[in-house]
Design a protein that fits this description.
By secondary structure, the protein is α+β, with helices and mostly antiparallel strands.
Length: about 500
Amino acid sequence: MTFIPLDHRRVQTAVIGDKYSSDPVILPMDHHELDRWRKLHPDHTYWCGIQLGGCGGELSDRRYTDKVCHFAHHPNAVCHRTANGESSADHLFIKRGVERLLRRQGLRGKVSTRDLGTGPGDAVDLFVPATRRRVRFQLGALDYFAWRHTDDEFAEDADGVDWVFAQHGPLTHELLCRQGFSLRVRLATHGGERRVHIGVSAHGHPLHWTPLEECTLTPMGLLTPPLETIHLSRARPQPAGFPVQGGLIFAPVPGGQVTEEAPLEVGDRHLIVAYVKPVDSPVVRAHVSLPADSEVPPAGHVYRVPEGARVLVADGGSGWVVTAERYLCLNANEAQRTGLWSPSPVPAVTCERTPIPRAGHVGTAEGRSAKSQQPTAQAETAAVPEGPLSSANRRPENAERARDLISQLRPLEGALGEAAGKQVTRAINGAELWLAAVTNNHGGAANEGGRHVRQLELALRAARHNLKLDEHSTRSGTAGQAQWAAPANLPEPDAP
């Protein structure tokens, strides 16, 4: 006869009624609590349930005063159950709690436990046909590939899935990044019961636990009071994002603001189409997402995102968007060097070389007037381009005048001193950006024409003063390349 010792394992959980039961119980560990439990439930029988991974044998409750009370198998029982501790029946307690929640809300749904390879307590699934929603209580370990595979399977017959994890790890962080929050589950022992609590972890909010009976099953999924307070959008998952190293530049496409379907959800931010050039990369046409509290950058300019740019990619690679939080408008020189912008065409002006008057010689007033006005008259013969410029600019003569002044200042830049040269370059750059904005039909820019013309006139005056030119004569530049004649309608600079 083979002797089989008594079972000395501390089995904390069992099922009530028979071996196939899903009604769990945890034996009170204190002998006083066990005495009260026995009085309340004198007819209970306890079993090493099949749904606990047990042998199906009957168990007896053992009362101790010097150690923890627990269940024990009858003599000669053979059981290979591996999970015997306090949490070994948590999947059945969660199942019972969800079934009670369905009954309280008057909903029909299917609740089932899942064995994913390590035992029947790996997961609990809920499916509510009326709302086509699923809830997965993930109690066992799960890696990203297994999670993604299961999530794709759920998507075939459900409009949404709530994942509730028992353990905090990479997948809870993944969901926090994707949807702005993640759900957790934990159980606490109260007498012969394990009570279920649902936790919500969100950006900017501490982890908050709510009893399952205070939660609500809605068409949007499992809802807890903290979720209602946080006002998280459960229907707008955040796409994955990758930082752009070194910043980027972009030039909006005229009329490229996106008003129809976007490649992915960007919320209430501006979405435009632009030519984008990251550092050391070719130019690509892409969607650019910009903050809602900023104005839509007008076309005809080039902008630099110095830092913080990211590429957002829709799940499955169905679309992508470049997102930026701040950007700077480049000046004309910087914009032209990018290759994404060039100044508006300036009418060519033929500057006639005129002799420098001999000392003490003063020409006639008529001669001075004719010679000084010659370049201006030639510049004025260039017509203002038809189309957007003439319709957007409220004062077309400002554009004509600006082009004329730019054409006279350009040959002088290389011959000027540092201070005057900077003033001339700054005035030209500002005027060219203004001309580009007007050409692209940005009506607000048309009102700035007078200011840019005045800056060009002041720069011309400073250049003439720097080169010691007056309205009677012209000089060749330092480089000996261009000749310039001052317009007659500019005031004479003060004598040095």
